[in-house]
């Protein structure tokens, strides 16, 4: 077994589903940079990503609808948008250590493609698409409701997106809009760790770290909301 095949096999074990068609998972982790231009549509993860994004939205919308009996369309839409984000997908991909199995072209690999937020998010969606094609909607649903439980719970609790909630809170009090400032960056270029500080007039700043600026921004906003008593710490 090659090193790449072993990485994909180990990823399959972490996902917790044995693919009937093993090539489906391989395609889900294959970036277009690793495929010749004439074969990219067929052999890269692009089409599975497209499908997985829609399956993710359907499963999460259905779950939110069942868990929020009295919620109106606006509230459900905000909750859905808070869950179905590239940042959420990238975080799920990191917990699965998807980066170890991603197949990249040489140039993309050299620039740290396996740890890039956008690629990790895309691959997570492609894996969902692959699960749907290989095992049906129920297989995809189990994966989504297990792996996205943190984000679904936040949506169910009515918290919505942290950055949006913080902006609305600041506007409602006549405060300046939140500013997100990079105060530190550590680690190698292909796998940096960012420290982001959120600042609002008349309030102490709050900081958080993350593998991407967007993730760190959302975490800093969450900390700010919890600290100010806008969100409950128990809901984190």
Helix vs. strand class: mainly alpha
Mean pLDDT: 91
Integer-rounded radius of gyration: 19 Å
Which strand order do you get reading across the main beta sheet? 1-2-3
The proportion of residues in beta strands is 5-15%
Total strands: the figure is 3
Largest sheet: number of strands, sense, barrel closure: 3 strands, antiparallel
Our count of domains comes out at: 2
Structure description:
This protein is mainly alpha-helical and 236 residues long. The N and C termini lie far apart (41 Å). A hairpin with a 6-residue loop joins β1 and β2 (193-199). α8 (117-135) packs antiparallel against α9 (137-147). The chain is globular, with a radius of gyration of 19 Å. The chain folds into 2 domains: 3-156, Orthogonal Bundle (Ribonuclease iii, N-terminal Endonuclease Domain, Chain A), CATH 1.10.1520; 162-235, Double Stranded RNA Binding Domain (2-Layer Sandwich). The mean pLDDT is 91. The chain has helices spanning 3-15, 22-28, 40-43, 46-67, 73-83, 86-95, 106-110, 117-135, 137-147, 149-156, 162-172, 213-227; strands spanning 179-186, 193-199, 206-210. A 3-stranded antiparallel beta sheet has the order 1-2-3, covered by helices on one side.
Provide the fold topology:
Layout lengths: L2 H13 L6 H7 L11 H4 L2 H22 L5 H11 L2 H10 L10 H5 L6 H19 L1 H11 L1 H8 L5 H11 L6 E8 L6 E7 L6 E5 L2 H15 L9
Antiparallel strand pairs: 1-2, 2-3
Briefly say what this structure is.
By secondary structure, the protein is mainly α. The chain has 2 domains: 154 residues, Ribonuclease iii, N-terminal Endonuclease Domain, Chain A, CATH 1.10.1520.10; 74 residues, Double Stranded RNA Binding Domain (2-Layer Sandwich), CATH 3.30.160.
């Amino acid at each position: 077994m090659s090193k790449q095949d072993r990485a994909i096999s180990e990823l399959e074990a972490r996902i917790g589903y044995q693919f009937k068609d093993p090539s489906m998972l391989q395609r889900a982790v294959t970036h277009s940079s690793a495929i010749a231009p004439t074969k990219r549509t067929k052999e890269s993860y692009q089409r599975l990503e497209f499908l997985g994004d829609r399956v993710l939205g359907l499963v999460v919308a259905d779950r939110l609808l069942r868990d929020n009996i009295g919620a109106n369309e606006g509230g459900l839409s905000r909750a859905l948008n808070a869950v179905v984000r590239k940042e959420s997908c990238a975080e799920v991909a990191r917990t699965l250590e998807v980066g170890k199995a991603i197949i990249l072209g040489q140039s993309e690999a050299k620039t740290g493609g396996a740890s890039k937020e956008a690629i990790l998010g895309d691959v997570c969606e492609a894996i969902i698409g692959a699960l749907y094609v290989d095992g049906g909607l129920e297989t995809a649903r189990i994966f989504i409701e297990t792996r996205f439980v943190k984000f679904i719970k936040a949506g169910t609790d009515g918290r919505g997106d942290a950055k949006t909630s913080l902006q609305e809170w600041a506007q409602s009090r006549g405060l300046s809009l939140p500013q997100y400032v990079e105060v530190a960056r550590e680690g190698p270029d292909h796998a940096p760790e960012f420290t982001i500080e959120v600042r609002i007039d008349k309030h102490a700043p709050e900081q958080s770290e993350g593998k991407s600026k967007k993730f760190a921004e959302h975490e800093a906003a969450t900390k700010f909301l919890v600290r100010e008593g806008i969100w409950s710490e128990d809901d984190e």
